[in-house]
Amino acid sequence: MSLEVISVENIQEIAHQYGYLAVFLGILLENLGLPLPGETITLAGGFLAGSGQLNYWIVLGSAIAGAFLGGNCGYWIGRYGGWPLLLSIGKIFRMREEKLLELKQQFSENSGKTVFIARFIALLRIFASPLAGIAEMPFLKFMLYNFAGATAWALVMVTLSFFAGQVVPLEKLVAWVAEFAVVALLLVIAWIFVPIWLESRQVKQSYTNELKQPD
Known about the structure:
By secondary structure, this protein is an all-alpha fold. It is built from eight helices and no strands. The protein starts with 7 loop residues before the first helix and ends with a helix.
């Protein structure tokens, strides 16, 4: 299920009907890779707390717990089965194993910051934990950054919808958050793939120049 299938109104109704369980399971299952709008459910939970229908602190705790546990599960999925899958995806995008190993090393060097920041970026929120497992980030270190990221993300989402939801419709709030997450994702993609494209272009140019040189 996705936002195209489930409207914001239906998500709000689900959050109203199932309350804290909906917030907990929504973000947990999203972190496991299921196409569920966990972030929107969390925003709906904060929105309902702002109107007095749910308790702010329990919504916040449910979001933190779901994000934290989902991240931990994603880590072990990546640790035990993520590398072969990443190699297969790399072949689709014509990325050599050496380049993937280089990216893995870069992730390892910045793993803590990546796990934390990825919470606020569309899609990366799902893939950061498995990537940490693939990069063999120490689990205790991962748990620390995963908990910090889950707490910061949940605090921002629930508090934002708790206060802003009193003056802004939930649909508009969800749209704003989604736009921010997509823009952040595009910036990250550019940061990763533009250097790869420039390097590939430079290699081709060097090869072309070598062919043009007389024997």
